[in-house]
Amino acid sequence: MYSDRVPGPSEDASAMPDTAAETPKIITVADGLGVRQEVDNCTWIDLGGYAVVVDALEHRHKAADVIAAVRDGLGEVPVRYVINTHTHYDHVALNPDFQEQFGAEIVNHSTRDIPPEGLTFRGSRRPAQMIPAGGCHTDGDCVVWVPSDRTLLTGDLFGWGVLPLTQPLRPELAQHLEATYEWLIAFEPETVIPGHGPLATGEHLARWLAYFRSLVEHISEACRCDQTDKEILASTAPPADMRHWWRFADWKHDRNVRVVLRAVRRGGLGA
Ligand SMILES: [Zn+2]
Predict the structure, then answer these.
(1) What average pLDDT values come out for the chain (271 residues) when binned by 10 residues?
(2) Quick one: pLDDT at residue 243?
(3) Fewer CB within 10 Å: C terminus or N terminus of the chain?
């Protein structure tokens, strides 16, 4: 969820040709590690003897479909925990269904104290670590790292190009965001499961960080050259290699430019 999202000029459903992540589908990342994708991603991880589910979607009426997909993916293995990467409505809607169906415990920053080093869930098969990474999207963001499969679940920290912020961009926030991305990249994930949209890789995280830095640099330089907002908006095109990113050219890039431009005009960023 991005609360201060600025709609782009072509933001309507008919203008979005990419429906790949909108159609319900099951993606197998590894044996016992799967994702049900339908805009929102819901992931199950068989830890051996029990499973965790990460994120529980937006639409309660999809509960039957989602629970069936999870049961199908896990067989007899019970879901013992539902981890919410954060508590925005589009990550927690099915929490009660997992509680009812499996007696699962809900784990997020509001139900547990998550220590800085994180919580490790261990079974006979593989561990999963839930690690706090707050301050970029919400104060309670966590990521989940599955080292055996080099799989990183980022929640809404990675949004296929969109600045994940839900508050105005300030210089110290930009620094925190960059440091968080450097930390995510250092996991060297082979598979990145974002909160929404197609799966990604560590290269996408690195590409986004480079994009963000170049956006700040480019817009700062344009402001120093006394370009108007209109000129800057018109001249800051989405990078060619990112145009195909999920919904990126539709509204995300435009929103990012506006957020960075406001922050540069306020002062401090890119100075
Ligand atoms: Zn969110």
Answers:
(1) 39 48 93 95 98 94 94 97 96 96 97 96 98 95 98 97 93 96 98 97 98 96 95 94 93 95 89 67
(2) 94
(3) C
Q: 119 CA to middle of ligand 1, Å?
A: 21
Q: Which contacts of 103-107 are long-range, i.e. CB under 8 A and separated by 24 or more positions?
A: 103/78, 104/53, 104/79, 104/80, 105/80, 105/81, 106/81, 106/82, 107/81, 107/82, 107/83
Q: Ligand 1 mean position to 109 CA, how many Å?
A: 13
**In 10 A of CB 20, how many CB atoms?**
11
Distance 127 CA to ligand 1 centre (A): 25
Please name each of the domains of the chain with its CATH number. 13-266 (3.60.15.10)
What is the pTM assigned to this prediction?
A: 0.91
